[in-house]
Amino acid sequence: MSLLENADSLPRPMLDKCLQAVNLWRKQIEKGNTMHLYRTHTCGALRAENIDEQVRVSGWVHRKRDHGGLLFIDLRDHYGLTQLVIEPSSPHFALAEQIRAESVIRADGKVVARDDEARNPNLPTGDIEVYLSELEILSETGDLPLPVFGEPDYPEDIRLRYRFLDLRRDSLHRNIVLRSDIISWLRQRMTADGFREYQTPILTASSPEGARDFLVPSRIHPGKFYALPQAPQQFKQLLMVAGFDRYFQIAPCFRDEDARADRSPGEFYQLDLEMSFVTQEDVFACVEPVLRDLFRAFGNGKRVTENFPRIPYAEAMQKYGSDKPDLRIPIEMQDVTPAFDGSDFKIFANMIAKDKRVRVWAVPAKTGGSRAFCDRMNSWAQGEGQPGLGYIFFREGEGAGPLAKNIGPERTEKIRTQLGLEDGDAVFFCAGVPKAFAEFAGRARNRIGAELELIDADQFAFCWIVDFPMFETDETTGKLDFSHNPFSMPQGGMEALESKDPIDILGHQYDIVCNGIELSSGAIRNHKPEIMLKAFAIAGYSAEVVEQEFGGMLNAFRYGAPPHGGIAPGVDRIVMLLAEQENLREVVAFPMNQQAEDLLMQAPAPVSNAQLRELHIRPSLPKTTPTDEPVKE
RNA sequence: GGGGGUGUAGCUCAGUUGGUUAGAGCGCUGGCCUGUCACGCCAGAGGCCGCGGGUUCGAGUCCCGUCACUCCCGCCA
User: Fold this and answer.
1) By the 8 A CB rule, do A245 and A239 touch?
2) Sheet order of strands, A398-400 included
């Protein structure tokens, strides 16, 4: 049964299919029929039990070792490597010597046991080799712009231009297979959990909120445009209104925004899901086991959070300085304002006296208690545009550093006991209005965790962030706006909207975070038109505008809409985490570059004037590129 | 839209304070080699030093501009 390399790791149906195919070829051979045109075995299949069999294999010439009197070829396909041996007496020796790496060949030969000292324990097929009797070149290669053998870093543009070569390389090849396996697993699991995959339109209407849309001009309706969906948000809610109860989709999403290492330009995928008649707890109870089991299945034995802690947004900001905390870092910040209030450290004391909102947060740094480390953090902070990063470090039973001197031993000791610090530890301080410095404090926390190697990397640390505020004030304009999704239900419903200060209203809105990466956002939706109109009114949108922009969905809610909610974990980021990759391009088969160009397929590209005329489009190009010729005939 | 980094052989890189003929490894070509699995040994070909301008007796090296790639900020409900 060990016909296929890594047979154990293959899903059962896939393994059965492969075995069926192999058996079919076998039967043909036994009947004396001609061999399969290309192969009786894959390059990962042959083992000691195949010794003396006459076999046929096809694949790429991975590596050639020419001893003059003896020639070895490593033949590679999707499944593995098999060593071919060609002796000088072979009529094909001369041809075999000529073959270049990455040519595709078909080879017939006899499976032979390797001598003890010639065995290669690093290869699943390393106990045998195939003595070549027939050789056919199926496809030749020219000069390679990118070697397939070996895995050093290569320039992105060359990797992307020759993506078909890059994808042959082992690590990338495995990442793409992993992605496929993950998506397949998710589909099976979601279906088993009572969800059905419903497709939603790719050509749809532009939405005024959120990211920039990709637009598609209409031929039939001059001057009008379709938009590619930023997410199937409204459609999945309409499916709930239509009574389908549980929806999911491996959904393509399109946003015309600039790329990042962890953000594809243009398009990405979500495990989009929505459920009817659910509370926030129901969504958690459904999604949490899916992600936990997925990460256990594909996480290479790393620990996965058993029960995802639920951290209110405000608490996350206070403890971690982030709404996507990396919980692998065992650092929690604390408010130590009283220790500085009225102290002789005048900078902080005066700030506190002047403004009631000012707080001092402490970032404890276990094992960071050396002047060298503290100074390094301080200059890092200055490099981040901060005035500095005050610190105390503890040694010989007392606090040291300029700050400790200023506030005195009593207050220093109070800080030490509050944070549970000891000799050899340090603590850093950020002061100001929390909203202004929380994000920097969070980065300091990450930095400290990384520098002191406090991160426990052998785990996937999940959490829910809950109780997001519905509204926030824009720092520059002072205008009130939705802080997240305008379609989510405010906690407390209409009553909260009518009675509370908008800034204090929380939403039934939640994120899933893993190792400091935001995997998804979700919400219990606002399915009541009157509450939605009220929420939009608070954010400054008139009923007319809301009716005009979201009329379709609003109207649907006037004909019997179930309470519903959902979430949409990002597939690309999940695969990144499980493949342990820092860059999205390592887990996408055919990615675009940072300028949103497909270097392999040459997109975007000019189109003919005839095509443009049909679409009633005439380009109006920026004057800065007069030499461009964006239109071909 | 803004900021940082990089750009030298097909590929990965080195190149001193500005100094005469720009190097190495992989790959390629030729030769030798019967147990390699990063095979080994010998020889050879291969360079608009991203592009344009400037400083200088002299520029791969310094300056200005520009292009390409990349990372980050803005942006991403």
Assistant:
1) no
2) A334-335, A359-365, A426-432, A390-395, A398-400
Of A46, A33, A194, which Cα lies nearest the Cα of A111? A46
Q: Compute the half-sphere exposure of residue A82: CA atoms within 13 Å on the CB side of its CA.
A: 37
pLDDT of A195 > 90? The answer is yes
Statement: the CB of A260 is under 7 Å from strand B: yes
DSSP H or E stretch at residue A294: helix A280-298
**What are the two backbone dihedrals, phi and then psi, of residue A204, each rounded to the nearest 5 degrees?**
-140, -160
A423 touches strand B (CB under 7 A): no
Rounded to two decimals, the pTM is 0.89
Q: Residue A456 and residue A172: Cα distance in Å, rounded? A: 26
> A554: Cβ–Cβ under 8 A, 6 or more apart, which residues?
A529, A532, A533, A546, A547
Contact A501, A509 (CB under 8 A): no
Give the side-chain half-sphere CA count within 13 A for A435.
5
Q: How confident is the model at residue A412 (pLDDT cuts 50, 70, 90)?
A: very high
User: What are the backbone dihedrals phi and psi of residue A608, each rounded to the nearest 5 degrees, phi first?
Assistant: -75, 155
* Average pLDDT, integer, range A509-517: 94
A73 in contact with nucleic chain B (CB within 7 A)? no
Q: Which nucleotides of B are covered by protein (CB under 7 A)?
A: 1, 10-13, 26-29, 32-40, 68-77
Strand B within 7 Å of which CB atoms in A 169-208? Answer: none
